[in-house]
Design brief:
The complex is a heterodimer of chains A (195) and B (199). Chain A is an alpha+beta fold. Helices cover 31% and strands 11% of the residues of chain A. Chain B has a 4-stranded antiparallel sheet with strand order 1-2-3-4, with no helix packed on it. A 3-stranded antiparallel sheet of chain B has the order 5-6-7. Classes of the chains: A alpha+beta (195), B alpha+beta (199).
């Protein structure tokens, strides 16, 4: 490997004259104008992970998952003793792999959450788009109402978002459902077949 | 009032060049100790966190898309303006004049945003394209906001130490200098089974 940093276009190694400049400079190989900013993390060496020390005295506390290894700390999720190998550090907190996995799945560890469903957007879309072909709203309006009410307390976007979309969806879908109910009631009670 | 956890860094931009018809969008948000990339399909959001202490490099590559869009908008403006002028009918003139106005508006926006670029962010485990930083001027503004935060997390690289650091990196990563732990040894016990890593 000739350089820690290749050109994003031609993959040719970039030399130090190109980095941390305030203007664009051409790649020596392909001539693409580049601005490259590097930070100390680029040169950081990674230390291999620890594998845990073996238990030498029988009375020593041992890892829950590896009974032959010495416990170094308890898991902050379940309290089980962990060896250095099982200790997963996450921003100063220590978890066992099982708690980390379940925390991610159940959304308990917010920093591991990597996907959310936007139920407010779904409810609002179901309340608005089918209006283009009004007849669909007999199905979509109740669906929108159900989603808005069922997921009223579900987490919305990770970046701040109010319940405005859910409220608008409920109002619109409520109006559509009322409209259908009034229409059906009118048709069934007022319009009589000709004798 | 509760302080917001994330502040918007870039407006959401389409991941594809046909942003008008695509619903997949991407935006960047600033967290306390990380940059949050949000990719949304409209109904789901996918998050990627880039911690300031892990960001190794940001690379801007100037692209020519802004010129292509400029030409397309300019051609559209000229074509519709011509039809509006030569059409004769007042309704035709209004319709095509409005279309020409729309294209002209697009052209003005494109030129005002300035040259386009592709921006990628590199960490030890990935190189991620940041579609929301698609104009040089906007990308530089964003970088200017990120620089002090990254420096706070990692420290700063003095310009004079960069060549020495690069040389040291090259020396450490040349094939002869790889440590035994970096080159796992393996044993082939059975020719029909995968090798077994030892040591």
């Amino acid at each position: 490997m000739d350089s820690p940093l290749p050109c994003p276009r031609c993959k040719a190694p970039l030399n130090e004259s190109l980095v941390n400049r305030s203007d664009l400079a051409p790649c020596p190989a392909c001539g693409t104008a580049l601005q490259v900013e590097i930070y100390p993390a680029l040169f950081r060496r990674f230390t291999p992970g620890r594998d845990g020390e073996a238990v030498v005295v029988e009375t020593e506390s041992s890892c829950f998952y590896h009974p032959q290894k010495k416990a170094v700390l308890p898991c902050e999720g379940c309290g089980r003793f962990l060896c250095a190998l099982c200790d997963c550090e996450l921003h100063g907190q220590h978890f066992c792999p099982a708690c980390l996995e379940s925390g991610k799945k159940k959304g308990r560890i917010k920093r591991l959450e990597n996907e959310r469903t936007l139920y407010d957007n779904i409810a609002l879309s179901l309340a608005i788009y089918p209006l283009l072909i009004f007849y669909f709203t007999i199905i979509t309006a109740p669906m929108s109402l159900y989603i808005a009410l069922r997921y009223w307390n579900a987490p919305r976007s990770i970046v701040h978002r109010t319940k405005a979309r859910l409220i608008v969806a409920i109002l619109l879908a409520g109006l559509q459902v009322t409209g259908w109910a009034v229409g059906i009631f009118y048709l069934t009670t007022r319009v009589r077949p000709h004798a | 009032m509760r302080e917001k956890e994330y502040r918007r860094l870039t407006r959401s931009k389409s991941r594809s060049i046909f942003g008008i018809v695509s619903t997949a969008r991407s935006s960047l948000w600033l967290g306390q100790d990380h940059l949050l990339g949000i990719d949304t399909s409209g109904y789901t959001e996918t998050y990627k966190r880039f911690y300031f202490r892990d960001i190794q490099a940001v690379i801007l590559r100037k692209t020519e898309w802004w010129k292509a869009w400029g030409v397309a908008f300019g051609a559209g403006t000229a074509l519709f303006a011509l039809i509006a002028l030569l059409g004769g009918d007042a309704i035709v003139a209004w319709i095509f004049g409005s279309l020409a106005g729309l294209f002209l508006f697009g052209l003005i926006l494109d030129l005002a945003a300035g040259p386009s670029c592709a921006c990628c962010l590199r960490t030890a485990v990935q190189t991620e394209e940041l579609p929301s930083m698609n104009r040089v001027r906007r990308a530089r503004k964003t970088l200017a906001r990120l620089r002090p935060l990254i420096a706070q997390a990692q420290g700063e690289l003095a310009p004079e130490e960069i060549p020495a650091r690069m040389q040291a990196w090259l020396a450490a990563n040349s094939p002869g200098n790889l440590t035994p732990s970096a080159t796992p040894r393996f044993v082939v016990d059975d020719p029909n089974a995968p090798p077994r890593i030892v040591g």
